[in-house]
Write a structure and sequence with these properties.
Alpha-Beta Plaits, about 35% helix, globular, disordered N terminus
Amino acid sequence: MVIRLNRLYKTFYQIFYQNDKIYILIYIFDNMLDTKDWKILYELDTNARQSYSEIGKKVGLSKEVVNYRIKKLLEEDVIKGFYTVIDASKLGYINGRFFLKFQNESPKKEEEIINYFIKNKKFWWIDSIDGFRDLGVACWVKNTKEFYEEKESFLLKYKKYIEEINEAIYYKFNILTRDYLIKKQLRTNKPVLLCYSNYEEIDKIDKKILLEIADNARQEIVSIASKLNSTPTIINYRIKKMQKSGVIKGYKAMINLSKIGYYWYKIEFELSDLSFKEKLLNYCKAHPNIIYTYETIGGVDLEIELEVKSYEEFRKTLDEIKSKFYQGIKSYKHLLWYKERKIRFISEDLLG
């Protein structure tokens, strides 16, 4: 007898009798997402607010089937949620980050430190690291004074547990589509640029809308209107206005990389010739597995992040970069992000 147990991980078991004993053989096969699932993930990564009908037309399925498949992807934790990409620099914020290396800390103390940042409303991103650092965190603050005060407040409480702290302010932050999901060899979508914008005035209602959709990008207009005591027409108009002005840069699915068999690597480059930076950025914009590029004040010359199936695939990309741009690269370091703990592209204290 053979029975299928799970859609995501194809698992069979076989029961048979031999010499008056019962034997159970279990067969487990890797990720069983089919071509349609991968296409749905790609569409949600490109624009998570698309309707089921819009996605269905692009992937060749009915809206009912798309709805069912997305629910299954959520149930199976392939998708952990949907978030809105908000450029808070348009609202007068700067984006600062800390990289931490722990010392003399127990696992319990490490979790305490991580929860300190998770609970802090200014910190929008927290991620654990496997490598020469242990934790990365980022915050939206109004100015460098506020950024410094966040660092001081943290160190007053936890300095004896920190071996090293590395801080920087993002100057340019590019987000690229996950074209590898559909095995697209060369990216044609333009990157989304954050932290490099002029101030845009929005009112209290707009801010409330942003807080509503920040980590619930597929929330329906009717639901938002009900919560804010407004009308769907007004909410829809305001969202479109913020999209046009660049306050809202897009909507994405939070994909659980471990569930689809991918790893998230970061490479930090120090360049010997800064004229190579633009060449390297153009390479990144075309590469389907490179998802983020960063330029910072206080950090290295260029940081890139990519998602790949294995360390071997990561090394292949790194070796290709070294081969193409060795004349401009002075040194590099790399690390592995292994657990994303918070992502919300806005400060939770937006309303003051």
